[in-house]
Structure formats: C-alpha cells, structure tokens
C-alpha cells in the first residue's frame, strides 16, 4: 500500500486558515464559516503550534500574514481549488453561470437583451449580480464579470474589451423644447447637469466649450449612471452616458443628443474572468454571446 499523508494538518484547520488569509480578521472569517471567533482563533493557534511557526502577525486592529504564512496560503488555496474542481466534475449539475455586472450595465444594457439570451441558451441557468465592486471570483461563485475601467483589474484576471467608453450628452425632447439649444451658452446655463459616479462633466464641458470656462449653477448628483438616466428621461436635466446605455431611448425618441459630438475617454467596459487553462463551455458561450451583442 502507498504512503498516506503523515504530515497533513487537520483539514478543518486548513479551511479556517484559508478563510482567515482572505479576511485578515478572525471575526469576519468566523462569520463566513458559521462558527465563533474563539473557535477560529483556537484552530489557528493549533495549526501554528503543529507546524512550529507563526502564520500571522497579530496587529492592533488586523492581522498580517508572515512570509511563511503568505507562501503557505497560496498553496493551500490552490489545493482547495483542485478539490473543488474535482468535486464539481463528479457532480455534473445543470449549467449555472453567475455574471457580475455594474448596476447600470445590468439595467440599461443587460435587461433588454435577456430574452434573446434565454432563446439562444435555454440550458444555461444565468444569475445576474449587480455590484460596483470587483468580486472575489472563486469565493463568491462568480464566473464572469463586466467592469468599467482600464486593465489590469487584478492578478490572475483576464480582461477582454467589450466597448470603449465614449460619452454622449442626452436630454429629453420636452426639456429641449422648453429650454432651448444647449449648444448656445445662454440656453445651456438654464439646464441642470446630472452627475454620476464617473465625474466626466468637467472634461466634457472643456470638450464642447473649448474657449471658455463655465461656472455652472445647477447640479444634481447620483452615485449610478442608471439613476442619472432615469432623471434625464423624466426631464430633469442633461446627463452623460455611453451611447450603448441609451440605444432604446434614442431609437424611441425618449431622449435626444444635447450636443452632436461624442467625447472619447481612455477607459472601457471589459469582460473580466479568472485566468483558467480550460474555461467551462457555458462561460465560453456567454462570453461569445456578449461580444456578439456588441457587434
């Protein structure tokens, strides 16, 4: 008979260690694992004493991995990922795919296209998670994300450009009729500027009125583009957006361009996923479908 694993620490202690390396906090790791903070601390102490070395430095409000702990964390995580993949391969489930997108991308781009997706891929059980922050792919069970910015988005992540950011100013036709052409400086002063989290108005004003500095009076601020777009549709001002997010509104005449020109920005919307030697066929299918939609 072959040799077993005589030096292997208890697997439960390794699972606790892996959770603590991510949170660098006993309380948060305990919440994730559904155990008490004391149990987590005890498992880590037991692991450190069985290995004969310190894995963490205890700092006033957080923990830090020691050099030995950091190296061990990478290997332990890889080992758990291997076990996880092997277990998934044993239990073929219906194709679940979790796509994490920003709230604006979800409401303005994804929702109108979901019926077409379900027709094309009836066997894929798609979960759409709307979140601004970049996810922890492995631990949140996310297969693919759409994020705004510039790569790289993080170590071990692949990024594929969906579309570059170009910025269009949009307004409701009723407001335009009431307040006049925004290209005229005096008329423009009457409009409220609707801001989102991207803070592109200063650059856009310099772009459309290059010879003058504007000290605009009326501002409304939102933390998401989707909210600014709801406000612009209801006639509250002018908003800046990617043309991709207002295709339907422009086609139906609910919104019109406030200025004819579009401003290009050095950033874009990217498909982001963990770098894997083999990508699941369902992930490949969804990736291809998203890229096809852009064309």
Automatic annotation (TrEMBL):
<comment type="similarity">
    <text>Belongs to the LysR transcriptional regulatory family.</text>
</comment>
<dbReference type="Pfam" id="PF03466">
    <property type="entry name" value="LysR_substrate"/>
</dbReference>
<feature type="domain" description="HTH lysR-type">
    <location>
        <begin position="9"/>
        <end position="66"/>
    </location>
</feature>
<keyword id="KW-0805">Transcription regulation</keyword>
<protein>
    <submittedName>
        <fullName>LysR family transcriptional regulator</fullName>
    </submittedName>
</protein>
<dbReference type="InterPro" id="IPR058163">
    <property type="entry name" value="LysR-type_TF_proteobact-type"/>
</dbReference>
<dbReference type="InterPro" id="IPR000847">
    <property type="entry name" value="LysR_HTH_N"/>
</dbReference>
<dbReference type="InterPro" id="IPR036388">
    <property type="entry name" value="WH-like_DNA-bd_sf"/>
</dbReference>
<keyword id="KW-0238">DNA-binding</keyword>
<keyword id="KW-0804">Transcription</keyword>
<dbReference type="InterPro" id="IPR005119">
    <property type="entry name" value="LysR_subst-bd"/>
</dbReference>
<dbReference type="Pfam" id="PF00126">
    <property type="entry name" value="HTH_1"/>
</dbReference>
<dbReference type="InterPro" id="IPR036390">
    <property type="entry name" value="WH_DNA-bd_sf"/>
</dbReference>
């Amino acid at each position: 008979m072959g040799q077993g694993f005589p030096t292997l620490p208890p697997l439960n202690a390794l699972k606790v260690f892996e959770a603590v390396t991510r949170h660098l906090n006993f309380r948060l790791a305990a919440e994730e694992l559904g155990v008490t903070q004391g149990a987590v601390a005890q498992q880590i102490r037991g692991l450190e004493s069985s290995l004969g070395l310190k894995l963490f430095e205890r700092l006033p409000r957080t923990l830090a991995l020691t050099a030995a702990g950091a190296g061990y964390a990478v290997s332990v995580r890889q080992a758990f990922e291997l076990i996880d993949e092997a277990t998934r391969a044993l239990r073929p489930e219906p194709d679940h795919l979790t796509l994490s997108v920003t709230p604006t991308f979800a409401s303005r781009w994804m929702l109108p296209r979901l019926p077409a997706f379900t027709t094309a891929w009836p066997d894929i059980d798609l979960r759409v998670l709307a979140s601004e922050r970049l996810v922890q792919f492995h631990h949140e069970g996310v297969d693919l994300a759409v994020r705004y910015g510039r790569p790289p988005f993080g170590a071990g992540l692949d990024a594929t450009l969906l579309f570059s950011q170009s910025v269009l100013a949009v307004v409701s036709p009723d407001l335009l009729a009431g307040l006049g052409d925004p290209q005229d400086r005096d008329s423009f002063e009457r409009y409220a500027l609707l801001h989102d989290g991207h803070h592109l108005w200063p650059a856009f004003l310099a772009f459309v009125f290059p010879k003058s500095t504007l000290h605009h009076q009326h501002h409304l601020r939102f933390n998401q583009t989707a909210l600014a777009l709801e406000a612009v549709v209801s006639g509250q001002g002018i908003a800046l957006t990617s043309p991709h997010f207002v295709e339907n509104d422009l086609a139906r005449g609910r919104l019109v361009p406030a200025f004819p020109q579009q401003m290009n920005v050095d950033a874009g919307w990217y498909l982001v996923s963990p770098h894997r030697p083999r990508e699941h066929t369902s992930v490949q299918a969804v990736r291809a479908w998203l890229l096809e939609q852009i064309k």
